[in-house]
Amino acid sequence: MNRFAILRQRISHYNIKGKITTVLWITLIWTLIRLFRFFETYASNPDLIELNEELASSILITAVAGLFVGASIVFLWERWLRRMAYFKAMFFIMLFYSLMFSILFSLEQGLIKLSNTKQTMDVEVLALKFKEGFNLVFLTNYIYWLVITFMTILFLFIRDKFGPITFVNFLKGKYLRPKREERIFMFMDLKSSTTIAERLGEERYFNFLNDTFRIATPGILATQGEIYQYVGDEIVISWLIKNGVNRANCIRCYYEIIEQLKDKSVYFDETYGTQPLFKAGLHLGHVITGEMGIVKREIVYSGDVLNTASRIQSLCNEMNTDLLLSNKLLKQIDLKFLDKEFKSVGNITLRGKQQKIELVTPLNND
User: What is the chain's Cα-based Rg?
Assistant: First the structure.
């Protein structure tokens, strides 16, 4: 099994592992929220609460709720919101949430009262506690956790909008003050995009691009890439130098995206009657990185390396290749992590540049 096949296995595990990690984080945060609310209630009414019994019941039920609802959000609800009509998705989410909350809330109340009265757990007792649970306390908790649930969904959508690495940097305020960094950039451009757009029409072409970028994303994340921009039919991907050269991530990313799209070739043929093919250019250099804007803030990179990488990509057709990169970048990469050999295409003067730059391409362009 070659290294790229191994990487595809890693991406599959990465996707599942990432989703499970998200569910566990949701469970932990919800449990902490529940503990805060429990001790807040206990502080104001210490005589009304059996501390040990009710605390244990609250933690147990909240952990179960976090696991089940968290898994529902990550594996089902986000997909519903993206693919269903909005009101239909909201109806199913509310129905699912209401059913799950009713069962878990009533179970929690039953456990608390049973632990206090030392009764034996049986179906009749649970049914009685289920009926007793529907009161003002139920309604208050229902609304409270409904808000928490939708805030969780909103948080995940915001994280997805910025990308996990960029989102964490925003939270840390890492780029509130501009910083000079050395980064790798890859500009990936869809081949024959004008022809495809004319044939598919505006709406189908938009869906075609959306499906293409969606399928490409796991390969980018698994190779530690950060999606900087979608510019029409182009993806701009960035790495901190240490992440990009680690295990040849920046080059493996390109091949992994290509393989992911090939794996979905039947889907693209049946849905759109065409295949997404990319050409890419890579370069590294220093940039100034910082937050820009007031209303629509985003992390922006400023430096000549972006222009150079873009112009390298624009030479792919002329050089009859799908992948071009600067030899300066290739020298930083340990080729033992690639099942590829590279050849020089010469010292090229890029448009708008005075100094020549040596470019390389895979020996076998496949």
Answer: 26
Domain with CATH 3.30.70.1230 in the chain: 164-362
The residue to which tokens 């449990």 are assigned? 31
Between 265-272 and 202-222, two packed helices, what is the crossing angle to 10 degrees? 170
**What is the separation of C-alpha 27 from the centre of its chain, rounded to a whole number of angstroms?**
19
Distance in angstroms (rounded) separating the CA atoms of residues 113 and 118: 8
DSSP-assigned letter for residue 77: I
Q: E-strand spans in 98-178?
A: none
Paired tokens of 93: 């989410």
Q: What is the SS3 string spanning 307-338?
A: HHHHHHHHCCCCCCCCEEEEHHHHCCCCHHHC
Please calculate the CA angle 319-325-326 and round it to the nearest 5 degrees: 110
Predicted local distance difference test score (pLDDT) of residue 119: 47
Contact by Cβ (8 Å): 313, 323: no
What are the CA-CA distances from residue 264 to residues 201, 209, 216, 257, 258 (Å)? 21, 14, 11, 11, 10
CA atoms of 17 and 10, how far apart (whole Å): 10
Contact 49, 39 (CB under 8 A): no
Q: Looking at the DSSP assignment, which residues form a beta bridge with residue 356?
A: 349
Q: What are the start-end ranges of the E strands in the chain?
A: 179-190, 226-231, 234-240, 278-292, 298-302, 323-326, 342-349, 356-362
Query: pLDDT tens across 219-274, in order?
Result: 898 898 999 999 889 999 999 999 999 999 999 999 999 999 999 999 999 999 99
Task: Say which CATH topology domain 164-362 has.
Answer: Alpha-Beta Plaits (3.30.70)
pLDDT tens, residue by residue, 171-217: 777 777 889 999 999 999 999 999 999 999 999 999 999 999 999 98
pTM to 2 decimals? 0.72
348 φψ region: left (φ > 0), alpha (ψ -120 to 50), beta (else): beta
